[in-house]
Amino acid sequence: MEKYTVVVEKGENGYYIAYVPSIPGCHTQAKTIRQLMERIREAIELCLECGMKPEQKTSFVGVRTVALDGHGTASPA
């Protein structure tokens, strides 16, 4: 069984957005997380059926926030 890292975000419109970093262009959106996960699974399957080859395997490490002051200088948030 192949496993893919899926990134999930919530848009301003309230919809959840999912994409697969190792398969460029593989993304979807839905109103609920449950529906989103069904749709991203379908999107992955369709991408693979169309001959798209996953790029280098990645593993999720975490999420960080970077704050910029008014001068463009970055500092950890």
What is the CATH first-level class name?
Answer: Alpha Beta
The largest beta-sheet arranges its strands as 1-2-3
**Rg, nearest Å:** 15 Å
User: Any idea what the CATH architecture is?
Assistant: 2-Layer Sandwich
Mean pLDDT, to the nearest integer, reads 89
**CATH fold-level label:** Double Stranded RNA Binding Domain
Domain unit count: 1
| Terminal-residue CA separation | 38 Å
Count of individual beta strands: 5
N-to-C series of helices and strands: EEEHEE
Proportion of strand residues? 15-25%
Q: Looking at the chains present, what oligomeric state does this protein adopt?
A: single chain
Number of helices: 1
Secondary-structure content class: alpha+beta
Largest sheet: 3 strands, antiparallel
Low-confidence residue ranges: none
Query: What would the principal axes of the Cα set say about the shape?
Result: globular
Q: What helical percentage do the residues reach? A: 10-25%
Summarize the topology.
Layout: E1 7-10, E2 16-19, E3 27-30, H1 33-49, E4 66-68, E5 74-76
Antiparallel strand pairs: 1-2, 2-3, 4-5
Quick structural overview:
The protein has 77 residues and is α+β, with helices and mostly antiparallel strands.
Report on this model:
The chain has 77 residues and is an alpha+beta fold. The chain has one domain: Double Stranded RNA Binding Domain, CATH 3.30.160.250. A 3-stranded antiparallel β-sheet has the order 1-2-3, with helices on one face. The longest helix is centred in the middle third of the chain and has 17 residues. The termini are far apart. The model has no long low-confidence stretch (mean pLDDT 89).
